[in-house]
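Handout, tutorial session.
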Amino acid sequence: MSDRSAWTAAHDLCHTGDVTIKRLDHVSVVVDDLRAAVAFFTALGMTIEGEAAVEGAWVDRVNGLEGVRVDIVMMLTPDGHGRLELTKFRNPELVEIEPLIAPPNALGLRSVMFTVESLDDTVARLREGGAELVGEVVQYEDLYRLCYVRGPAGIIVALAEELF
């Protein structure tokens, strides 16, 4: 490969007709309080698609850990296209990251964004459950009203209300 950037290489791949993925299936969030996480995303408008306790050799192998026992709740967006997997490890114990409440500029998965009908109503509903704004509700041009809310396990949940 020449000295093209990784973005340029990835961009070219998208335009060659090569297919690397079929779809984004779901995003997984490891939480310490599964009930509170389900309540948070239910207040956001998601519904429970399914629940399962999972363990066994295949789970150990895919996680690269021994003795994995997890409880999983799969949440579904109202349009039926977006899924969020909430995972509570019963074994092995959770490993905390530093800092526990990472700022928006921390490395790794930054946020999960949802488009909502009413930003004000959604934020009010989430605040009733204890959620806090990370910054402020802002308007981006004439397109969106946006904000970040701190969600379960300290993740940032981005909310956007379309203005068009």
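The second record follows below. Compare its token runs with those of the first.
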Amino acid sequence: MKKLGILFSIFMLLTAFTCENEPLEGDFVSEEIDNNDNNNNNASLVGTWALVEFNADITSTTTFDGGEFVLDFSTELVSADYNLVFTETDYTVSGDYELMSTTIVNGELNDSYTDAYTDVFGEGVYSTNGNVMTINGSFLDFEVDGMPAAVDDVDQDADFTLSADGQTLTFFQDEEQLQEDNNLDASTVINSSSVWQKLE
């Protein structure tokens, strides 16, 4: 069990979830921002957004030395006093939130717990191209079995939608990651979303 946890944690660190997804967690820094083309809809994002929903489901299937391990991890928002503030090129995140998480190993419940994240602060820059936002890190930080599920300084793309009235911002991150290395084959499917409400 410890070997599986270590392998999964290493894999998660290398693949930089998302949370976040994670919609996600942490600091986001974009390498380059094209203010003419890529940030054409950033003006509609400017303002303060309160986190109202976050969900992440991760399924990792690992084959190692002839054995197969399947780890399912899910987390959801319990409560939040957590804001995301956009300017046209920068962002900050700050506040507190609580997540409930469950891990299932090979079909059996392994652990279920709630974690509180307090006095969180992050900042960075972002860019958009259509309805895709490029960030570096994640908007939310959380842990899987005591290991960070997000890695700072890694560029990620997330799809986003803005409601017709401009008051609800939703991020989606769905991806599949494959890793093959000698006796280790791993497939990880990540589905995450977060919903933010604009504050007046």
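Points raised in discussion: Residues 2-198 form one domain.
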